[in-house]
Queue: 3 jobs
Job 1
Amino acid sequence: FGSSSRFDADQVHDIFPCLPSCTQARMAEEAPAWDSTLEEWMLAEGYCCAAALANLEDGAMYAAAPAEGEAGWALLFKEGDYEGEILQEDDTMKKITVNEVASLWEVGQMKSMDQRPENGLWIAGNKYNLVSCKEEDVGSDKVLLSVAANKATKCTVLIATTKTQIIVGMANEEKGQKAGNATKAILAFAEYLLGLGY
């Protein structure tokens, strides 16, 4: 193409149709940089206590904040399959196998509450009850925002999906964090990512 050629994002995607996958791979390779970007956009104002990025394609998290001591990972992710329990309609508990990557992927695919995962959203070993899923305006784009809560942890988890990414934000009621402010932070970060083509 020559060194003086310039293309906009749509032209690049037309020329390189694998771009979403290539872009996701590049983002994952730059995970340490994304950790600090998450801290800047999602944590700096105190609206969230933790945040993460995952690929929309497979739900795999690759960056988390706070980065120090991998605290974000501890607050937002439990690795591998593990046993969990869900409440049945007859008030009995049912044992299930939980995989948080699959759980996050399912929520990332939701377009409405009718599509919520049968076993709920699982974050760091805790089941969160999905309470809403709606489209939000972000600049000239739209993102889907899902909100889930857990009474025991007193935390709210917000999940926004962009073209290629799942953004996870956690607000902790005990730290004075409110879901409304966390929503502002996650939507601003979603707009930033969309502006970069993600």
Note: The radius of gyration is 17 Å.
Job 2
Amino acid sequence: SKMESVNRKMLSNPFFLKTKWPIRETIIEKFAAGQNQCNQFAKYPIHTFLKLPLPMCFRNEAFAIACIKELVENRNADPDATDQDGETPLYLTVSSPYFIRLTNDEYGVTKYLLSIVEHVDARALNCILTRFFSKTKCKWPIRQTILEKYAAGEGQSAQFAKTPIHTLMQFPLRTGRLFKCIEHFPKSSLSTLDGHGRWPIHVLLT
């Protein structure tokens, strides 16, 4: 508590990775202060944590998830919050060279955030599908969750559940990615009319 600042070299010490949360929080907070990010950390703790030039040891997926979880549970940090740059924590993880893994393992940072956010914003949606669409590790259930949470953010949850292809046509997706998503829905969905009496192709062309 008497330490005024923390630098990257100190953070690289294995001791810091083994500390409990109250001490770990103080360490990150003091490091943020040294980066002139103290007020930012107070207002957007998850965003600031993800943006800080932390050593690679702090980019460990299990450790990063533990920190984000503590921020949500103990500081009431909002994982859906948009900061002054118009960025969400989810967008920061999928656009970062450190957190670009969409895996099926227990410690995927992006997968963890997907499990706790209420919705996916348009920037995160496109970034995720651009980076991971051709990756075999990005299984359809994960992509489906992404699409469902984007629909939720747009107030289209019920619509997506009832007429998924019609709803997908309204998403800001490139044609190639759109058709890749459509492949996972029953072919019968292509001949379904929505609440306005339109076929999916009509929605696409309007």
Note: Residues 151 and 157 are 5 Å apart (CA to CA).
Job 3
Amino acid sequence: GGGPRGGGSAASQPWVETGDAVSNMYTATREDARDHMRLRNVCFQQATQAYLAGNKALAKELSRKGRQHAHSMKAAHDGAAARIFRERNSNTLLPNSTGGGGGGGGPRMFDLHGLHVAEAVAVLRRELPNCRAGGERVAHILVGTGHHVKGVRTPARLPAAVAEFLHAQHIRFWEPQAGMLEVDIATVTPGG
């Protein structure tokens, strides 16, 4: 963190639904990926059993099917991530006419709730340079605080991963409120 503060612009961001709203969206959009994951696992387990039983042809076929399900799982996750991000950010993706950011007249806000770490980083790699190209000064990134993460032994990975990405890219940011990062767009490398 550190750096110049955004002058209270954090207060201009609208409330976003989290918890059950994100959980339900996540469950609905990730169902196909979970199905392919289960089928992939079954195929790989059966391939191992077939190989150990000496049936190499069946093992090869089951491995091929497992790889197909792994590919389908990744495609399903990619589609789910795009749908989640689009739905959670539908009113903030286009800069407003004042050059400040999202639809509410304040800084552009990127809600990363419901995205996996790699998906969230890919969004930031794509969108932060767009903010700079659009002449924006700051952007807000909602990473959450981990209150809704399932399993008490699983800390929220997204806030730490986003902060690590921003540090690695030498992008200045601060946390004006828990679960929200404010980014100094001038420190974003043009073009990514």
Note: The helical segments are 20-52, 56-88, 117-133, 158-168.
